[in-house]
Amino acid sequence: MADKVYALAIHYRGKCKKLKNIDPDKYSYIDFVADIKEVHAVGDETVFKITCTMDDSNATMNICNDFDVLSMFSRNENRVEFDVVEIGMMYYCETGQKEGFKVMRMRNEKKRVTAHCSVKDCPWRVHASPLADGVTFQVKTYVPNHTCVRSDPTKEASAEWIASKIESVLRENPGMKARGIRNELKKFGVNPQYMQIYRAKKKAMESIEGSYAESFGRMSYYADLVLEKNEGSVVTLQCDVDETEPIHSTPIFKRFFLGLSALRDGFLEGCSPFLGFDGCHLKGPFGGVLLAAIGLDGNNGLFPVAFAVVESECKESWTFFFENLSMLVGGFSVDKPWTFMSDRQKGLVETINEVVPHAINRRCARHIYANFRSQFAGTALKRYFWQAARSYSAAGFNFALYKIKELKPAAYEWLLKIPAEMWSRHAFDPRIKNDHVTNNISESFNHWVGELRSKPILTLVDGLRAKLMSRLQKRKQKGIKWSGLVVPNVVKGLNLVKEESRKCHLLVAGDYEFEVQDENINYIVNLRERTWHNRRTCPNIQVQNSGRDSDLHVPLSKLTRKRKTPPLAGRKRKAAVISSSQPPAPAQVSSSQPLPKKDPVVPSMHAAGSSSQPQPPSYLGAAYLPTKLLERDRSLSSQGNKEQETQ
């Protein structure tokens, strides 16, 4: 019946009111009462002759009382039956709001609905029960007059009624706060308490986005959809199954990993092998943690590579994340100086040492200082700590530590226990060309996720995918407008270097070798080998490199955002459950809990790849490919000249 619309011609007291294009899926008795509000002025007249005409036929019917409006739509065999009791309850609430009196529900059952005014001697009463067909409800008794005084309508505003009124508003503005919702309800003459507003908002958001529990059951369908539209991506859905139950028992959600091929290709072809790792807690009723791997593009912008939803931050969940991340990037080759920045989360360091033993580990200096300050507080110690962390030369680093030793020898000994290559710029591997001493890029990503952390898992995952798709395209369009091969942030840095070079004195030792005197400190610079004794950009390279653009532009790459993330089509929130899975238990899994030796049938899925691609980790269970997965197509050369973009 959803494909038909209705037109109503309401006849009363010689008048006629016409209503057109009424969708029975959206039309309720409340709307009907509002549409015929002129009828209430009739007074004692309770029986009205109302003619309902379907647009696609000449069928008509008479409405002899208020509740007969239900049968207007149930006449058609294809029409889904109304929940009469629910509509009756909503009628009470709506009537109480409009008329300004409180309704008492004597009976509210499937077989009968009876209500009366809350004032003892007031005669207002309504009683309805189904007819012989068991579908149509008929009002058997209706006394419309009130002899009582109007009461406060707020008492009749239930959470369900408020949810029905604010649902359309929340669709447009899901982040509306309780105060804004309260102001929105003032037009109905009600002023509910904030706790009631919170409950109503929860019900309305569940109607819009689906419930938290139901969204877990749609993750298998969503994974198939992502792989179909993003060939080459890695999507892994890991579930637990109780081995004591039958083989067809419902799996329980455990972990989900998503790595899009467009982001993977942009990272490998246009970013340095530097990744920041962090996790942020989810705010839903089932908890969980969102893990993410974040890189940096050539313009020092955030470049998310992959993320996962897991039960907690522990060694097992980080192993799951790194195994899939390795599959996404084609393995962590020893030929690249892979560098990982972290806050030393629980289980992360152990996982890195096992999965990527050759990786360079960096520790966030901000978290190191937080531990340092808890034992050695003081403004001077803070200043020299950050001077040591940000120093580009060993001399500057040693000088800062010497000052710390003078102030607090115990603090000096404490810092010596941490290898300098983990937190000081002067000791970083020069191949990585990245001088970040904090993990702020991961913290920025957690802030960028925003309100999605409190959404159901399907809304969270697809919301992140949509934000990443949009971000990739916006950065690409911005990069197309740049002039030259050097990105804006690098240009700003080079301009500062030009100013600093005016304070330096240069001695030429050969065609490519120089001695630079900068504030009584001498440095050796070799332009052929691109080396000098300080890790900062050399102020004199700009002077001696005039006319040698090739030297400056060799490290540049244009392929960071060459590929796009295709959009997804389909009903993600309201789709039927293709492969059900229960939500996880609210309690967090202990980090000491061992992994099962062998997972039973697990609905895991991975992208197709070449034979040289690393195989899925054994504990993920059997992998399968969606039947509609397209063959990978890397023929991008025809678009390369048109869509090239600087980092």
TrEMBL record:
Every Transposase MuDR plant domain range: 101-139
UniProt key word DNA-binding: yes
PROSITE patterns per UniProt: TRANSPOSASE_MUTATOR
Record's compositionally biased regions (Low complexity): 576-594
Occurrences of domain MULE transposase (ranges): 275-371
Any Pfam family hit: DBD_Tnp_Mut
Gene Ontology BP term (one): DNA transposition
Extent of the signal sequence: none
Keyword tags: DNA recombination, DNA-binding, Transposition
Location of region: Disordered: 539-647
Protein name: Transposase
